[in-house]
From TrEMBL:
PROSITE patterns: GGDEF. Its EC number is 2.7.7.65. One of its GO terms (molecular function) is diguanylate cyclase activity. PANTHER family: DIGUANYLATE CYCLASE DGCM-RELATED, REGULATORY COMPONENTS OF SENSORY TRANSDUCTION SYSTEM. Keywords: Membrane, Transmembrane, Transmembrane helix. This is diguanylate cyclase. It comes from Vreelandella rituensis. It comes from the Bacteria. InterPro entries: Diguanylate_Cyclase (IPR050469), GGDEF_dom (IPR000160), Nucleotide_cyclase (IPR029787), Rev_trsase/Diguanyl_cyclase (IPR043128). SMART domains: GGDEF (SM00267). Residues 348-481 form the GGDEF domain.
Length: 487
């Protein structure tokens, strides 16, 4: 018996759970629905705060603190740089395209958002230059996340390309160059700046929502992909909050908080990937892993059953004669040893019949080997029909057979032999347009009086078989006296 220990218990537990689950399909569907509802509500939670401030907050209330803003941005940049590194490390191992774009998105956010913090003190004089880096950093991140999502099932990048640093350095340089280009807003009017911000934020919002929609329609179920979707949903709400806000207003600060929440959720996913498979699309939930285990165990058990079947078949083939299906010499020897040992131990009887077809060569010569084969098979079936379950018929030579008869003395053996002889003699086999019959000569020997081991018994049985042949064939001989020739 195969023992699977704790693994088996876990699997059996799952099987029981599954059985229960099957019984309560409806309950499963309801809880699944509830789970999705909770996730949706959780994702939309920031909107409640945004709506609350929008409706109830006095618009003139402001919290203008450059220092707090600088500290918040410094923290955001530090964490973002850290998560960029962790994501990049994941990518170098898994090569997952989605993770590559994630890392690029985080890198873009870090480098584009940086001047937003550095230039905070410019705010009173030039709000445009200070603010522009916020929406653009979110847009860059949204673009990368959406592209990554598009390639979520692309094959992993080649090993050598994962480790190359030059593409990352080039991407970093491009983001810094973008920072310089963005400094051009310095020359734009206040209206142009406002229009630019709004457009950038709206595009970021549309891209993030497109990502959420894509994932919802494709029904992503893997835990990290669910986290990805929630994060995009939360980030999109931060864009809404930014669109509704004025600088230093409470809505504006809240928008920062929502953006940070979206970032934290995604970074949680990244860390989870880092601590497991380093990929977003191969981290499975516990239920999924258990299901996989169940399927794999079912396969293993199936394979074991097939192996056992094949082994049994092989063992049978190794012990059987290919033509007649009777025991072969190997099985005969093993069984004879066991039967002799048992009979000797229990002081029981055991007899042996040595059988040989008479003039079998003539059958082959006259009708061909195929007919000879059919005769051998048919004869064996007939002999088996006249034996008990514990008796063993074996083919020990071409047309020579032996029968082991446990718990049988010589007198009983002679009667069985006679029954077999008569039954075989009555058989008729089809050979082309005629029928042929055969006869058997049989020598009998008994354990004890004729020998104490199989060699001796066989010698004695063969000797009596020879006497039967000498005496005219088609007869049973049980002693060593020459048999008078029958006519
Ligand atoms: N068709 C067939 N013939 C076999 C097989 N094994 C042995 N034989 C034949 O069995 C015949 C045995 O012939 P002999 O040993 O001369 O004995 P016999 O013709 O039976 O004559 P006696 O035993 O003296 O009665 C040979 O022709 C073998 O070729 C087999 O698997 N199939």
């Amino acid at each position: 018996m195969v023992c699977y220990g704790a693994f088996d218990q876990v699997i059996q537990g799952v099987a029981v759970d599954k059985g229960n689950a099957r019984a309560g399909v409806l309950m499963r569907q309801i809880t699944g629905l509830y789970q999705r509802l909770l996730l949706t509500l959780f994702t939309l939670m920031p909107m409640m705060a945004v709506a609350y401030i929008e409706v109830f907050q006095e618009p003139s209330l402001r919290f203008e603190s450059h220092m707090v803003h600088e500290m918040a941005i410094a923290l955001a940049i530090t964490l973002s740089a850290f998560i960029t590194y962790v994501t990049w490390r994941c990518y170098t191992v898994s090569g997952e395209v989605l993770v590559r774009w994630l890392a690029l998105g985080f890198l873009g956010f870090t480098l584009i958002y940086l001047p937003h913090g550095l230039l905070t003190r410019l705010a009173p004089d030039d709000q445009g230059l200070f603010l522009v880096y916020g929406p653009v950093s979110r847009l860059a991140m949204a673009v990368c996340f959406l592209v990554g999502l598009y390639y979520h099932d692309a094959p992993a990048d080649a090993l050598e390309s994962r480790k190359r640093l030059s593409p990352w350095i080039k991407a970093g340089a491009a983001f810094l160059a973008l920072d310089l280009v963005l400094a051009g807003v310095y020359f734009l009017s206040a209206t142009q700046v406002k229009f630019l911000f709004t457009m950038v934020e709206i595009v970021a919002l549309i891209l993030l929502l497109a990502g959420v929609l894509f994932m919802a329609l494709r029904r992503f179920r893997l835990p990290l992909m669910v986290i990805y979707m929630i994060s995009l949903g939360v980030l999109s709400q931060s864009s809404i909050a930014f669109l509704l806000s004025d600088i230093w207003s409470h809505q504006w600060w809240l928008a920062h908080g929502i953006s940070a929440a979206g970032f934290f959720i995604l970074s949680f996913g990244v860390v989870q990937a880092f601590r497991t498979t380093r990929s977003f699309s191969t981290v499975y939930s516990q239920a999924q892993v258990m299901e996989q285990l169940r399927v794999q165990q079912a396969r293993t058990l199936d394979a074991l059953a097939q192996l056992e079947k094949a082994n049994t078949q092989l063992a049978r083939q190794a012990a059987t004669d290919w033509l007649t299906g009777t025991a072969n010499r190997r099985q005969h020897t093993t069984r004879a040893k066991e039967d002799i040992a048992r009979a000797s131990r229990d002081d029981g009887d055991l007899s042996v019949l040595c059988l040989d077809i008479d003039h079998f060569k003539q059958i082959n010569d006259s009708h061909g080997h195929d007919v000879g084969d059919e005769v051998l098979k048919g004869m064996c079936i007939e002999i088996q029909r006249n034996l008990r379950a514990q008796d063993l018929l074996s083919r020990v030579g071409g047309e020579e057979f032996q029968v082991l008869l446990p718990e049988t003395d010589l007198g009983q053996a002679a009667r069985i032999a006679e029954r077999i002889r008569a039954a075989v003699a009555a058989l008729r086999f089809q050979a082309e347009d005629t029928t042929v019959g055969i006869t058997l000569s049989i020598g009998c020997a008994q354990l004890g009086q004729d020998g104490i081991d199989m060699d001796a018994l066989t010698r004695k049985g063969d000797k009596r078989l020879y006497l039967a042949k000498e005496g005219g064939r088609n007869q049973v001989v049980t002693d060593d006296a020459p048999v008078a020739l029958s006519d």
